[in-house]
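Cross-check.
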Amino acid sequence: EGEVVASAGLLVQTLPQAGGATLVEFIRQTLDEQRLTQALFEASGASDAETLARRLLAPMSESLQTLESRPVTFFCLCSRARVAATLEMLHEEDLRAMILEDNQALVTCNFCGEHYVFSESDLELIRRKRRPAEPAS
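Predicted model, tokenized:
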């Protein structure tokens, strides 16, 4: 019906100098899309990632050790200051064009969708800030 019933991802890595490259490669080859999908449906009543991981890694699950478990959260590190710093990297001509043609800049974060509006005066301050100081005479 086109509805997402379940979604998951699995990151398998070994500790440094554990010599687990062969194990990781074996798991990568073993866990194809069908096996992950099947485990998701079988674990539909399971409430934690460890249960799913143990089902996916069934032959090796006895040696699985969970070091940490925490909920997945969505957050973005964008901010007006970061966007301004990005605008500072533009060429002088590009900043001038924004000032003269649009009288502003609207920047949208591709990650979280937050909109940042920089007025003509904001852009002028950014333009002046990025320009190297002229030597004193």
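The chain has a mean pLDDT of 81. The beta strands are 104-108, 115-119. Passed to J.P. for a second look.
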